[in-house]
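Standup notes, protein team

Yesterday: finished cleaning the Solimonas marina set.
Today: tRNA-2-methylthio-N(6)-dimethylallyladenosine synthase structure.
Blockers: none.

Input for tRNA-2-methylthio-N(6)-dimethylallyladenosine synthase:
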Amino acid sequence: MSDAVPSAPQSPAPRKLFLISWGCQMNDYDSAKMADVLAASHGYARTDQPEEADLLLLNTCSVREKAQEKVFSELGRWKEWKQAQPGRVIGVGGCVASQEGQALSERAPIVDMVFGPQTLHRLPQMLDSTRQTQQPAIDVSFPEIEKFDALPEPRADGATAFVSIMEGCSKYCTFCVVPYTRGAEVSRPLDDVLLECAQLAEQGVHEITLLGQNVNAYRGAMGGTHELCDLALLIDYIARLPGIERIRYTTSHPAEFTDALIDSFAQQPKLASYLHLPVQSGSDRILGMMKRGYTRAQFLDKIRRVRAARPDLSLSSDFIVGFPTESDDDFMQTMDLIAEARFDCAFSFNYSPRPGTPAANLRDTVAAEIKDQRLAILQSRIRQFDDEFKRELVGTTQRILVERPSRRGEGQFAGRTSTNRVVNFDGHADMIGRFVDVTITEAAPNSLRGRLLDTVTG
Ligand code: SAM
Ligand code: F3S
């Protein structure tokens, strides 16, 4: 007879979720929340091995691509996966799900769940429902701010974190699909945002990036009053939270880039020296057709003032080239604006018509080759300013937040400057998650090299 102690009942192996996320930071944030909500409700753990998973989620983005067709061809690749094991479930979320709704599961019957950016917190119920009824569960509604109330406590993953402060967009730029797929602007109450930031700070987060399609439209309810908190005030509140040393925000609309936000760059030292302010074009005629709500002169005036408030600022933007009717002259005005504003970073795209947007009714007049040429010229100019920006940092001392071991090799670590530049340096693993001072010794194409001075915070 064996005298072995009976082993304790083993907890079942966690169910595995395979998640594909397309697009922007906002989508990555939503994807992380999908994983969190399913971990809390059903004990799901994320895997990068689809064969281990019984749940596949595809979080789509249709801002710049012909994403509809891409979704169906992606789904075609998962047919065999689904049939290989009974009970496997496929869910599609994000912008394409929001646009297609029911039609998506009708055209692709392997899809069991269709949910929008604002209903991802309902995934646990949708999953139970589709498993019980064997029918697709579809919910692409826009229930105001309910999503955030239903999400589990945030889980920090390192010393930096994203916090969504508002959802949707009400600007209706003529080329953009976001207001139709993500709904109107809705701000989270101030206390909810502060609580999430404080919870992250307690887990070792030192840098918060505030997220939203248009964060400077933030108007958060302030508990116990009828007043609303704007972004500048929110930054000041977050700066008072113990542990939070750096704050960034993205994306910001130039028309609502207020004097208060410009003053923040002069007055709030915890606000990082980095601003992403999408201008899209330097031609007033094109800006008017895009319904952007500002002129080139108004934009440049704001840039002049924000540069005076924060001289070491890194300035980033978004550009669209080849908007319908954009002439060589319109494009040259964009190039002039780039030279005047000295953007050292940019996300730039060829225009593509998005279904359901007003601009999609205009003839797409600029030939694909011309768009490609203009994009290449624009990107090469921005690279020049990026190189200059980095060269000017050589010899200066920069405070960096160390994020991870560097891909450059053993004993090297990587962190970011306040101006959002990656710096590689020789250091120690215990510096991860802490601020250190480095002298910048070299500017490389995609990063900087630094020499360690002294550990500062942690
Ligand atoms: N809220 C931001 C702003 O103030 O402009 C923009 C957010 S939008 C989701 C991200 C970027 O995608 C835009 O700035 C624009 O450059 C690009 N984009 C949006 N629609 C596009 C289209 N139809 N074609 C090409 N680029 C597009
Ligand atoms: Fe799109 Fe314009 Fe809003 S680009 S996200 S409609 S500010």
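Follow-up from PR in the comments: The longest strand covers residues 448-457.
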